[in-house]
Amino acid sequence: MDGTVLVADDDRTIRTVLTQALTRAGCKVHATASLTTLMRWVDEGKGDLVISDVMMPDGNGLQALPQIAARRPGLPVIVISAQNTIMTAIQATEAEAFDYLPKPFDLPDLMKRCARALDRKRVRQQTLAPRAVGDDLPLVGRTASMQALYQLVAKVMNTDLPVLITGESGTGKSLVARAIHDFSDRRAQGLIVLQEQDLASAEDQADLLHRAKGGSLILDEVADYDDDLQLRIVRMMDSMGDEAPRIMATSQTDLAARMAEGRFRSDLFYRLGGVTIQVPPLRERVEDIALLAEHFLTRSAWDGGTMRSLSKEAQDALRNHFWPGNVRQLENMMRRLSVTGTGPEITGAEVSLILGHNPVQPPTAGVVGDEKLADAVARHLQRYFDLHGDTLPPPGVYSRILREFEAPLIEIALDATGGNQAKCADLLGINRNTLRKKIVDLEIRVTRRRKVM
Fold first, then answer.
1. Are 362 and 322 in contact (CB under 8 A)?
2. DSSP 3-state assignment of 85?
3. Which residues contact 306 (CB under 8 A, 6 or more apart)?
4. Number of C-alpha atoms within 13 angstroms, CB side, residue 129?
5. At 126, is the secondary structure helix, strand, or coil?
6. Is 361's pLDDT higher than 50?
């Protein structure tokens, strides 16, 4: 790499690491903990690239982007932030940052993005200033899959392409649709959820299109629509003229499989498939569970509940649960703990008590016919890679995926053998000491389990 990089971050360690890495790569580096100093350097014409944190002691890095664009058109800015929510990703995109990375970031990945920014030197004009946003969208997460989802939402929100949002029940598909509308150029217009009676007649269809004019129209769980309603939707989409609403559909069912079975119209399927956004289930982003739980506890406190926090034992219990109801189940549980608890901290025993009344049954939905385990795993892995778009997942995929597979396998085997580790080790075909080590390494919570029949 060749160029001068301006680094602004109030974390001395991050400044040191970035300075050393960029210097080794051949760049000159100016690093500061002050946004004021950064802006002075920009005014002086220094720098070919800016790397800036969001929350600085003397200002907000995102809010400074319009000023940087006005003073130095074409100066690329990479935003790094510990504010790992969809709002941060959208604000960075709206402010036309060159790129956005959540903390903790992968250093080799950041270096590749710096190289692209310095090589392209493309000129982009600032058109939208970041706007204040609410905290009511529980689209929160640090995991790579959620960050990829945020960035995809930010890229497509101001296009006219139809969007198909897929995922299990309770993952937040409707929230993603709402976020696309609320942060888009269409936000001043209506957000309408289609009801079957809206297309009962030509007059009803005209009224629907008038209400959704220039806004967004959501087809909720479109796989449940019968063939007649599907046909009416196709005809409606073909008849939409100027100021047509943007079409978004949600589905927890594999529409391609339904179409192959003759249970979903192909003409509607292809009309809906402009962009597909897959919302990952909660069990595939366990690192986000504590973050989400704290978010829901705060919201519950705003609504009149008691402000409580999670103990480490409570966090461990939450992470070890399978979450068949996904984010919606977690939200309901946090609201219950906020209202019914007394102490300032939620204990592991409280969490286990509630989870004990909700037996976990791994879902079987989504496995088609006689699909082999290897095919199912390959399908999920491909989806994980696809979520990253044109970039590769962070390094360490092998260990990360292996851990995700091993932990539930051992938990299920322990349950099947009544918690008997000798029988479990025999069932798995591994040494008992190996099993014990894996239980510790994978932080598997060993509790009393059902007896083997």
1. yes
2. strand
3. 338, 339, 341, 342
4. 9
5. coil
6. no
